[in-house]
Amino acid sequence: MTRSQSITNIVKGQDRSKSLPDSLRLQLNCAHYISRVLNRLNLTLAEKLRDFDITVHHHRVLQILFSGDGITIGQLAQRMVVTLPVLSRILNQMQDRELIERRANPADARYTHIYMTSRGVKMYKTAAPLAHPIIDHAISDLSEKEVTQFLGFLQRIDRRINEV
């Protein structure tokens, strides 16, 4: 095969996956679709949050803290599924915007706890309603029973991949 034929095959979108077992084909790959859905939801949410000068990561931090703040940085990193260096940068940005505050644990100075500020609470209450229509639209073709089942499946998958 010449180089130009090789380039032509790439341009035409040659499907090389036909030789793979079904379980390895992109069209049947659960992780691919989970990633696509999550990325699309995040891109749509990012557009909605732009006017508030917060990112999707900021929104996720606020969402988690709104459900119960005062958690450690490590706990927050686990819930967000991000590394500590990434979370540290996110928290620095949020602290600069006065959305969160860090407080040392008086009983054990090794641990820092994260709390929402009143500005953070207000920001979340303003921004959160923008996220719900995005999800509602995404699942609008599912029945209530299917949504419940889908959430159950996701929770089972989450538990399974987090087993130690």
H/E element sequence = HHHEHHEEHH
What is the SS-derived class? mainly alpha
Domain count: 1
Find the CATH topology.
Answer: Arc Repressor Mutant, subunit A
Strand order of the largest sheet: 1-3-2
Q: What's this entry about, in short?
A:
The protein has 164 residues and is mainly alpha-helical. The chain has a three-stranded antiparallel sheet with strand order 1-3-2. It contains seven helices and three strands, in the order H-H-H-E-H-H-E-E-H-H.
Can you tell me about this structure?
The structure is a single chain. This protein is mainly alpha-helical and 164 residues long. Helix 2 packs across helix 6 and helix 3 crosses helix 6 (118-138). Helix content is 62%, strand content 10%. The protein is globular and about 60 Å long. The model has no long low-confidence stretch (mean pLDDT 89). The protein has helices at residues 3-12, 30-49, 56-66, 73-80, 84-96, 118-138, 144-161, and strands spanning 71-72, 100-105, 108-116. The termini are far apart. Strands 1-3-2 form a three-stranded antiparallel beta sheet. The chain has one domain (28-161): Arc Repressor Mutant, subunit A, CATH 1.10.10.10. The chain contains seven helices and three strands, in the order H-H-H-E-H-H-E-E-H-H.
